[in-house]
Design a protein that fits this description.
The complex is a heterodimer of chains A (215) and B (218). Chain A has helices spanning 3-42, 47-62, 65-73, 85-110, 114-122, 127-157, 169-180, 183-212. With 215 residues, chain A is mostly helical. Chain A has one domain (3-212): MetI-like (MetI-like fold, Orthogonal Bundle). Chain B is mainly alpha-helical and 218 residues long. Chain B has one domain (5-214): MetI-like (MetI-like fold), CATH 1.10.3720.10. Chain B has nine helices and no strands. The chains are: A mainly alpha (215), B mainly alpha (218). At the A-B interface, helix 3, helix 7 and helix 8 of A face helix 2, helix 3, helix 8 and helix 9 of B.
């Protein structure tokens, strides 16, 4: 272990970790929006929306995130979408994780007992009211943990933007591996930072989950 | 610059060859991750403390860091200690180890969940502990987690695109090769995406068959 080197380069890794945190927060936020829209489409009364929702999930989950990212970043300009690498990373990965979140949210919503919605309708609530006031609150409680799994995967997933040269943790590690020939040290340094981010996020999710859990 | 797919047919053989490499690397890594997953699960549960603890640290590191980072570590790390592996081998090892750790978590849970009576009965019948594990407990545990392991293999197929960054000439790198010559990123990445999607569909169909075959018919 070359401690001297680690002490010299760690500030750059901290800076890079901050970029990774920004990427994680933004992609997860966009993912949640896409997931909610996707789940709403998949559960819609309209066949066309259901089809669009299913196609979104199938296409995104059936192809590599890296290809989606390249298609957006390198191919985008050809169809008039000009993004810098960071923007492409956020949008590409957000749309990607959104497909996984669509399934998580849909799963939570359909696992709320049918009788809940029916009872609410019987009590005179409209379809929308029944969903918003009875079904959704219960579904939200069920989806926090599985969404946490999606978020955990996404934090690691942000590493992909290294391939389009966004200077985040993995890109920084790769660059220093190349210039110092110390792959193990650089791996440990960036690995620990990733795990710190994932650990803190996990704690947050567990706390959120404990707050809404039924006694 | 609009879209022009007329350049695609000329590169189709390159892309298809890349697709074959993607299938080869996915299958090799899938086998490694399956065998490794079983091995890791047994180590994590039954190995002596001195083996178990370092192993757990390794598993924890592998589950908490991105695959891309691990690929860099394996590819460049092995070069540093004097082992110059072909990129394909490094890619298979990286992908295989990464998913072996995830499979091992699944298999560990399943081993613990196998009825205690199975081990006791096997021991009563005169099998040694390791025989009982190998012939009675582990097979049942593995059968129980075939569907989630299948999901991991699907994820492995898509993550195989990452090995293009260490220079394995699979589907993604083949597309990049064509793009380097033609400057048509949209067209070729789209073609690559379609290829991945088709391989994905094929793999899902095969996995569903395996699931049906291995499911207990009670």
């Amino acid at each position: 272990m070359d401690w001297e080197l680690i002490l010299k380069v760690y500030p750059y890794f901290l800076e890079a970790a901050w970029v990774t945190i920004q990427l994680s927060v933004l992609t997860v936020a966009l993912g949640l929006v896409c997931g909610a829209l996707g789940a709403a489409a998949r559960l819609s009364r309209f066949a066309l929306l259901r089809f669009l929702g299913a196609a979104y999930v199938s296409v995104i989950r059936g192809t590599p995130a890296l290809i989606q990212l390249f298609l957006l970043y390198f191919g985008g300009p050809q169809i008039g979408i000009q993004l810098d690498a960071f923007e492409a990373g956020v949008i590409g990965l957000g749309i990607n994780i959104g497909a996984y979140m669509t399934e998580t949210m849909r799963g939570a919503i359909i696992s709320v007992d049918r009788g809940q919605g029916e009872a609410a309708r019987t009590l005179g609530l409209s379809q929308f009211q029944a969903f918003r006031k009875v079904v959704l609150p219960q579904a939200l409680r069920l989806m926090i943990r599985p969404l946490g799994v999606n978020i955990n995967a996404q934090i690691k997933g942000t590493a992909l933007v290294a391939a389009i040269s966004v200077v985040e943790l993995t890109y920084t590690a790769q660059r220093y591996i190349g210039s110092t020939y110390k792959p193990f040290e650089m791996f440990m340094l960036s690995g620990l930072l990733y795990m710190a981010i994932i650990y803190a996020t996990g704690k947050g999710i567990t706390y959120l989950d404990s707050r809404v859990r039924l006694q | 610059m609009g879209l022009d797919f007329s350049v695609v047919p000329g590169w189709l053989d390159t892309i298809l060859l890349g697709g074959l490499w993607t299938i080869a690397i996915t299958l090799s890594a899938a086998v490694l991750s399956f065998v490794g997953g079983i091995l890791f699960a047994v180590i994590a549960l039954y190995a002596p403390w001195i083996v178990r603890q370092p192993f757990r640290l390794f598993a924890w590191l592998f589950m908490g860091t991105p695959l891309l980072l691990q690929l860099f570590l394996i590819y460049f790390g092995l070069i540093q200690i004097g082992i110059n592996l072909p990129a394909f081998v490094a890619g298979v090892i990286g992908l295989g180890l990464h998913f072996a750790v995830y499979n091992s978590e699944l298999i560990q849970t399943a081993i613990v969940a196998v009825d205690k009576g199975q081990m006791e009965a096997a021991r009563t019948l005169g099998l040694s502990r390791s025989q009982a594990l190998r012939k009675v407990v582990v097979p049942q545990a593995v059968r129980d987690v075939i569907p989630p392991i299948g999901n991991n293999m699907i994820a492995l197929l898509k993550d195989s695109a990452l090995v293009s960054v260490i220079g394995v000439g699979e589907l993604t790198l083949s597309a990049q090769l064509a793009i380097g010559r033609t400057y048509r990123p949209f067209e070729f990445y789209l073609v690559a995406a379609v290829c991945y999607y088709i391989i994905n569909l094929g793999m899902e169909a095969v996995l569903r068959r395996i699931e049906r075959r291995t499911a207990l018919s009670r």
